[in-house]
Amino acid sequence: MLSRRAFLGTTAMLGAGALIAPSRTSEARVPASFTPTQTLSLKAGDLDMRLLGPEGPETRTYAYDGKPFRLVRAPRGTRLEASFDNGLGEGSTVHFHGIRMPNEFDGVPTLTQPLVQAGGRFVYRIPLDDPGTFFFHPHCDETGQAGRGLAGVLIVEDPRDPKFDAEHIFCLKDWRLADDGSFLAMSEPDGASKAGTFGATRTVNGVPKLELTAPAGGDVRLRILNLDSTRIMDIGVEGAHASLIAVDGHALTPVLLDTLPDGVWRMGPAQRIDLHIRMPAEGGQVHLGDYRAAEIFQFATLTATGAVSGKRSTKPIALPKAELPRPDLKRAERFSFTLQQATNAAIKAVGLPVDDPLAKALLDSLCVGSTTYWGINQESWPTGERRNVPPPLATMKTGSSYRVTIKNETRFPHPVHLHGHAFEVISSSLDRLPRHFADTVLVQPGEAVDVAFVAAPGDWVFHCHILEHMETGMMGYFRVV
Ligand code: C2O
Ligand code: CU
């Protein structure tokens, strides 16, 4: 058998066709006897939406099964078999963001699976052991595909959860639209190399604002997802006390939003929160907004209608404690991943002229663009002499604990996502984060955030979830053997 390195070298010489062979570097966490308890067919395709208003022009967006932000609910413990059909005119994959799962279903083209070509199919077998608010999205041409709306919400229900009187889900996403409803370029160099290219049409669940109701005096669970490609949001609530009860799906000891700096939770792309609010008396209103933007984006108003019966405790409702592998901080080995600006071009890294068809095929197979603005530990994705997947930025051992310092040496904030793990956010050099579990953490310029986790087997990418940053170099992976 060829070694992995020799294998990669050979495929590069053979050309792009061979590149779609998946790498098998480790065993799956799920036994071969995976018996699905829920099946799902996910077909990616076009969907026409009127994002500029009911009288406005149509926009041809992308969606799973023709539903914007397709919602999937499953009880904790579900063995989900999701068969993905690619009805787009381009390659895609599905990444179930934040779910701990066997590496082979992680959805990263070339690294964990072949790219699913237009018209192709791939079956994902995903254990859903952690309750919470998750989502799924393509992992190729993300600025293009996610920018056009391709994403779904995955709610893993916990039968042990306390009862709420109502629940609402909010998918926040901006769109880059011209007046005629067509898409503007998803990425501009000035955005990609700086804070990102923003959309000007702001929406929640595909509309400008939601007017909702909830029972007066009732306890409401709000699941808020930042599904934007670029925008960092400061989520705040007016008209009720809100407490943060979960981050990225995982329960934490409730934190009153009012006790946080500026009374908001800052949330980068891909991050999710669950809030608990107690509705005011009949007729009272609660407003939800993003207070970071120059102009406050108020995305929902909940009006109290009809009362609930029974006495309520005045305390915030806590979710059952997250049952996640707890890293052993005393024994944890340390690594650091430093986020940097980069100047080398990916195309240079593959060592071929820009117009060489093989160079283009290589870049396509890695699902990256040809420009590099960013790097991690002096490496950009892809880079090095290798004409394929770069070497891992760290090698770890299955079941061991690791403490990783994510340091931001750039002038822009970056939400950093580690695949396949729920990590504990241990500390921030700016001292601004409560201790909690997450799969994505926002790292401010000059900040160093320590996260810790128990390593699961596989090749796991980690990257900035500002999608342009990821596609212009801010991605790497660690190998767990
Ligand atoms: Cu949600 Cu690699 O991403
Ligand atoms: Cu970034």
Q: Say which molecules are bound, naming each kind only once.
A: CU-O-CU linkage, copper (II) ion
Supply the helix-strand structural class: mainly beta
Mean pLDDT: 88
Helical run tally: 6
Share of residues in helices: under 10%
* End-to-end C-alpha gap: 19 Å
Oligomer: single chain
Shape, per Cα inertia axes: globular
Radius of gyration: 22 Å
Q: Give the tally of β-strands.
A: 30
Q: Could you name the ranges where pLDDT drops below 50 across 5 or more consecutive residues?
A: 1-30, 383-387
Q: Biggest sheet: strands side by side, in what order? A: 10-9-12-17-14-15
Main beta sheet, described?
6 strands, mixed
Strand content: 35-45%
Structural commentary:
- With 481 residues, this protein is mainly beta.
- The chain has 6 helices and 30 strands.
- A 6-stranded mixed beta sheet has the order 10-9-12-17-14-15, with no helix packed on it.
- β18 (285-290) and β19 form a beta hairpin.
- The protein is globular and about 65 Å long.
- The chain starts with a helix and ends with a strand.
- CU-O-CU linkage binds next to β5 and β29.
- Residues 95, 97, 137, 139, 270, 417, 419, 461, 463, 465 line the site of CU-O-CU linkage.
